[in-house]
Design brief:
By secondary structure, this protein is an all-alpha fold. It has helices spanning 2-8, 12-24, 30-42, 46-58, 64-69, 80-102, 105-109. The protein starts with a helix and ends in a 9-residue tail after the last helix. 24% of the residues are buried.
Length: 118
């Protein structure tokens, strides 16, 4: 929250410092870490953003539709490391979707899974 608050207040230095404090802790939930990686990318911290995004995907958060469309990740899109991470996320996302469908997940949940569009 401190990172978001200081970003909104225009304090880039403190916003990045707040993200770094979380990263230095034992916090490991990959979905919130994804939001911190996009936060870093938005603030021009490409290398730490890519390192964190790698940790996010390795940690089990690979929501390809969000990653492929998120404008805050645009500063990373021309980097080979980002393309590689996005490819891993897409492969894992498709595998998870395939398993969901194979096991009748939509029927069990009474829902229809949306199509994946890039």
């Amino acid at each position: 929250m401190a990172a978001a608050r200081t970003l909104l207040e225009g304090d880039k230095t403190e916003s990045i410092a707040a993200v770094r404090r979380v990263l230095a802790s034992k916090f490991s939930d990959p979905e919130p870490l994804f939001y911190m990686s996009r936060h870093l990318a938005h603030l021009g911290e490409a290398t730490p953003a890519l390192e964190l995004l790698d940790r996010v995907v390795a940690g089990g958060f690979f929501c390809y539709p969000a990653m492929v469309r998120d404008p805050w990740l645009d500063p990373l899109r021309k980097k080979a490391a980002f393309s590689k991470l996005l490819g891993r996320a897409e492969a894992q996302h498709r595998q998870a979707r395939s398993e969901f469908e194979r096991l009748g997940g939509a029927r069990i949940l009474g829902a229809t899974a949306p199509a994946v569009r890039a």
